[in-house]
Amino acid sequence: FAEDGYRMWLRYEPVADQSLQQQYRKSLQQLVINTDDATLAIAKQELQAGISGLTGQAIPHSRQVSEHGALLVGTPQSSQDIANLKLDLSALGPEGFRIVSADIAGKRATIVAANSNKGALYGSFHFLRLLQTEQSINSLEISSAPSVQHRVVNHWDNLNRLVERGYAGLSLWDWGTLPAYKDNPRYRDYARINASLGINGTVINNVNADARILTDQFLEKAAALADVFRPYGIKLYLSVKFNSPMLLDGFETADPLDADVQKWWQARVKKVYEYIPDFGGFLVKANSEGQPGPQDFNRNHADGANMLAEALEPFGGIVFWRAFVYAPEQGDRFREAYDEFMPLDGTFKDNVIVQIKNGPIDFQPREPFSPLFGSLEKTNIALELQVTQEYFGFSYHLAYQGPLFTEALNADTYAKGEGSTVGKILAGEVFDYKQTGMAAVINPGNSRNWTSHPFVQSSWYAFGRLAWDVNLTSAAIGEEWLRQTFNNDTGFIESMQEIMAISREAGVNYRMPLGLTHLYAQGHHYGPAPWHDKSGRADWTAYYYHQATKDGVGFDRTASGSNAIEQYHSPLDQMYAKPESTPEDILLWFHHLGWDYKMGSGRTLWHELVYKYDTGVAQVEKMQATWESVKDFVDTERYQRVKALLKVQLRDAKHWRDACISYFQSVNGLPLPKGSPKPA
Ligand code: GCU
């Protein structure tokens, strides 16, 4: 059949390098797994399918090492051979793994060892990754453990199967056929895809939650999905609506300090665990964008989160409580999460994790990091990213978000001096958190290739890899993904690395360079609408963000404006206080500057802006040319699809540029710099 992207990065096509092919065949004669555990049965299936696909040679299963070229997978508990090796597994924790080459009873072997079967499954996927990316497996000595405990994907799927900001078809969860048809192969493949990255949790429904998710009718269906995901090490979580007792059971209040409300939640949670014994917990969007929350009853976020946490605690469940809060009354949306959450630091229970969106306003193409990172010292935290390209051209634009994710993780908060990066904070190296997490809103739907644009897969991949290891680089991850998803040809990889590297910056340049933000048309978040629309909610219009007048442009967040910069640690607050010391790519985020402000390049701000918009368009043209140059290395279906989508992207990039420049020009009345293309 035509390659259509369904297999994502788990394609297991024959290894092209002949000498490696030989090496793999020799080293992989026998697969030894000595237990019938369901998780290791999955490892066995994956390794057998993967290795026979990659090497063209089947690998028979055995319970004992009896030949050279054994691949032994398990834990010291399940395998005497692994126990005898006395490998030090102490640094791996419950989910890490080691992959080593060693002799077992005189036979050459490769060992994938872990403290748990789940760790062994992750190690098996990693081993397959080595083969898929054509690495030698002769003298392996790999040790790996995840940076954060909770590595969770978030679905914004509604119960009617429409996906908020989904763009890849209807929801994967076919509620009508659940729980009867839980053997739907897509559920298993979905679990494989996630497990291959070490993702260990999934929130299956929209944060703008439907209270009915907690009814028996839906719990029974969710339980069927949880059954499928369990052996893959994936826990199921639900988004819940804070006023569920009112909506489902006619309560007059959902006050978290009301004893009857508390009892209602305790009873419901008990019910959830009857259906799903290893249920992960709740994700909650409260008092944000019209969602109900504790503030409706004059209580705060901690009151609300702790009430749910208490109900979940006896069963080991957790609450992800989102910090994405803002209301139209506030002068600066940027400030709000920090202003609401900082006074509550230290008052949340241990099984609450405050989930902080990147960035502080929304999933914009570029934002400075949320100052809650580095400031919430006594509250467990999670970083929330978005794979779904809500603000990045939906499923029509090519935008590898590895650079965006690593920019967020590598941002230095200076919380405890230089080097206190967001990544280190999440990894628990700066503050003493009980638990931390990383979450990503992903977009898969019933599109045959899951994500619609084939390259959205790369951002899902990048999220998973970074949640496992916050120190990986965007380029290394991009390369891994390309090798597995397309092929290992060096020329192809080099050309494609360029596309991967520039695609995010291109998207910033043609939409909102130099720290401009949120210039989208209201509602759909796809095309530009920078003009001053006075009809709607102010903080949902572009003018609120760019503040462009005849005199200048940008949002003043210094002391003369909203003073949001005070939320950052020193020296960032001083750095952002002056335009000269603010990085130019976030300049207009913090400053309102005259159109003739001199930029580092020597150009005026106005000319620089035009230059950036033009650069964005030129970068898409470059991406197009590069893609066309790799035609012979890509299967026809994916080649044609991406080629067609790049055309759409170029059209849109020009539209963005022309709309924004024309609008700003109508405000400032300045001529275009010499040599710039005339808006079409
Ligand atoms: C954005 C997005 C909404 C979403 C919200 C959230 O505002 O446009 O669709 O519900 O983020 O993260 O809660």
From TrEMBL:
Reactions catalysed, as given in the entry: Hydrolysis of (1->2)-alpha-D-(4-O-methyl)glucuronosyl links in the main chain of hardwood xylans
Family annotation (Gene3D superfamilies): Alpha-glucuronidase, C-terminal domain, Chitobiase/beta-hexosaminidase domain 2-like, Glycosidases
Record EC number: 3.2.1.131
Enzyme's top EC category: hydrolase
Domain of life of the source: Bacteria
Pfam families named among the record's database cross-references: Glyco_hydro_67C, Glyco_hydro_67M, Glyco_hydro_67N
Domain Glycosyl hydrolase family 67 C-terminal: 451-675
GO MF, one example: hydrolase activity
Keyword Signal: no
This protein's record includes keyword Cytoplasm: no
SUPFAM superfamilies linked to this entry: (Trans)glycosidases (SSF51445), beta-N-acetylhexosaminidase-like domain (SSF55545)
The protein's assembly and partners: Homodimer.
Name listed for the protein in its UniProt record: Xylan alpha-1,2-glucuronidase
Lineage: Bacteria, Pseudomonadati, Pseudomonadota, Gammaproteobacteria, Cellvibrionales
